[in-house]
Amino acid sequence: MARPRSFDEAVVVDAAARCFTELGYAATSVDDLVSATGLHRGSLYGAFGSKRGLFLAALARHTAPAGERALDLLLVAALELAPHDEEVRAVVERSCAALGESAATSLGHRLLERAGVQSAAPPAPQPHPTPRRS
Amino acid sequence: MARIRVSDAHLEVRLTGLDALWALRRGLTVPLSAVRGATADPGAAAEPKGVRAPGLHLPGVAAVGTFHRGGDKTLYAVHSGRRTVVVQLDPGPETSGFARAVVEVADPRAAVDAVNRALARR
User: Which terminus has fewer CB within 10 Å in chain A: N or C?
Assistant: First the structure.
């Protein structure tokens, strides 16, 4: 029997998304999620079913991938879950479709930026370099 | 060590050895439709467990049996807790009132994947 929820789901999902993007999916323990969200373990399981359920909820809140958090979540989903989780793969596909042709570029740039790699220039649409004649 | 088996329509948590004796039950079989998800969660073994009925509880050593806490009925079968899996259920007649099972299995990652894959297919 589901009891009425006494927490703001958006706040909880955002706190979880922060954990997932900072630590990665596998490295985020339920202990991390419990302390980040301030919920009891039982409430967390009751509301989302599993760590995966909470991750899916976080992904669903960021289906239009704009902003760093959304891109980071998408990177984590693509790297850690999508290879063996069809449901997550479908969400990643949809998000990439929403990003359009520059999906790979945006994700790549965000990945390098996260890594602190200097060469990460803003993803400006680059014209094809014309072959130089010598 | 418990065993989690997933078939087309059911999920079975099977207690082994003395666990089944302490818990006074062989395990728990529920329809997949009553399963919400599975998580590898070693920390769950250290949570306050509530009142046992029936079961064995040696804090820090083992918790085996049926426990009641905060209106939730939980099936525990944990010893060291390192390989704990939490299976969240929709408590009702189909789950004998259990809201979740917190059990140790040999390969938590494989068990969690098997359950969640079955749920995604549903």
Answer: C
Contact A29 B42 (CB under 8 A): yes
Question: Interface pTM (ipTM) of the complex?
Answer: 0.93
How far away is chain A from the Cα of B115, in angstroms, using its nearest Cα?
11
Identify the CA nearest to B22 among candidates B60, B54, B50: B54
CB contact residues (below 8 A), chain A span 50-89, against chain B? 50-53, 84-87
Does the distance separating the beta carbons of A52 and B70 come in below 8 Å?
no
Whether B67 and B49 have beta carbons less than 8 Å apart is answered as yes
Low pLDDT (below 70) residues in chain A: 1-5, 64-65, 119-134
The reported pTM is 0.88
Which residue among A40, A52, A84 sits closest to B37, beta carbon to beta carbon? A52
Residue B37 has its nearest CB partner, among A1, A41, A49, at A49
Give the integer Cα–Cα distance in Å for A67 and A43. Answer: 29
How far, CA to CA in Å, does A131 sit from each of A124, A128, A134, B90? 20, 9, 10, 64
Q: What are phi and psi of A112, to 5 degrees?
A: -70, -35
Kindly report the CATH number that applies to the domain delimited by A9-114. Answer: 1.10.357.10
CA distance B69 to chain A (A): 10
B86 with A84: Cβ contact below 8 A? no
Find out whether B13 and B28 touch, Cβ atoms under 8 Å.
yes
In chain A the first and final C-alpha atoms are separated, in Å, by 77
Domain count within chain B = 1
